[in-house]
Design a protein that fits this description.
By secondary structure, the protein is an alpha+beta fold. It has helices spanning about 30-40, 50-55, 60-70, 90-95, 100-120, 160-170, 170-180, 195-205, 255-265, and strands at about 75-80, 85, 125-130, 130-140, 155, 210, 220-225, 235-240. Helices cover about 40% and strands about 15% of the residues. α1 (about 30-40) packs across α3 (about 60-70). The longest helix has 20 residues, at about 100-120.
């Protein structure tokens, strides 16, 4: 993921209670500690206690108590000079206790399972992997009628819905690296850079991709990005939609699309997944 540019120095406003969805669950002490951690995350060389007090716009005594607890729990450390505070590596260690992809899959599977029950369609999650797309999770429709791409399969970066979503929601550096690492897979449908750019622009404008599959006749790919906090795609959630022509009445394509939108939004770490 790209590094975040440190935000400009300036006084941090206190949290506005009116913005909380439910005031009953407010935890001011926890909010204060998280505010300190987020502030120090933007400061590679740390801050003095006086600087933290100024940035946080809080009393010196409450900041001192919170800092001491964070130091005691080893989330924050004092620099060698002893007059500055910086983040320790504890948060990094905690985040890496379980591989990020495994964590994402574990969070995604119950949501994907719920989607397949409501939509009566299969779905799969794709992530970027060494120049193409790896299908990292897949759930079949419980109805028994569906088209599925198996977990562990590698599919094309430049000719699949999953690949186009990953490219559409990559920053410039990621985009260039992904294309440079790409190697064509068997059966890959060729596309010019100009056509690719047009497709990606349309995806960004619409927020998702829905089109006939370039690989399988009769399948419509519906795909949404799973977004990280910087609005780049961590993964994609795709439904290879097939329409039944017997007397069974199931969700139509518009309903399936909305179910998939909700599933991707539930897994995303950012807002902005509402319908265009």
């Amino acid at each position: 993921m790209p590094t975040t540019t440190p935000r400009p120095r300036g006084r941090r406003p206190k949290a506005d209670p009116s913005t909380d969805s439910d005031d009953r669950y407010r935890a001011p002490a926890l909010d204060k500690g998280l505010d300190i951690l987020e502030l120090l995350a933007t400061q590679p060389h740390g801050l003095t206690r006086a600087e933290i007090v100024k940035e946080m716009d809080r009393s010196a005594s409450e900041i001192y108590r919170m800092l001491e607890r964070l130091v005691a729990r080893q989330y924050v450390m004092r620099t060698r000079s002893g007059d500055r505070y910086a983040l320790s590596l504890k948060l990094f260690a905690l985040a890496n206790m379980h591989p990020p992809l495994s964590r994402l899959i574990n969070q995604a599977l119950p949501i994907m399972d719920e989607f397949t029950r409501k939509a009566e369609q299969s779905c799969h999650m794709g992530v970027y992997d060494r120049g193409n797309v790896l299908i990292s999770a897949q759930v079949n429709s419980p109805s028994g009628w569906s088209f599925a791409v198996q977990r562990g399969a590698r599919v094309g970066l430049v000719d699949t819905a999953s690949g186009h979503l990953l490219l559409a929601y990559a920053d410039e550096g990621q985009f260039n690296r992904m294309l440079a690492e790409h190697t064509p897979l068997d059966g890959e449908v060729p596309i010019t850079l100009e056509q690719l750019q047009e497709t990606l622009a349309a995806i960004r404008a619409q927020g998702y991709l829905e089109r006939e599959s370039a690989q399988t006749l009769g399948v419509v790919d519906i795909s949404f990005p799973i977004l990280g906090p910087d609005n780049t795609a961590l993964a994609t959630l795709t439904c290879p939609y097939i329409r039944r022509i017997d007397r069974h009445v199931g969700p139509d394509m518009a309903q399936v699309r909305e179910y998939l939108r909700e599933a991707a939004a539930a897994l995303s770490l950012t807002q902005g997944m509402s319908a265009p």
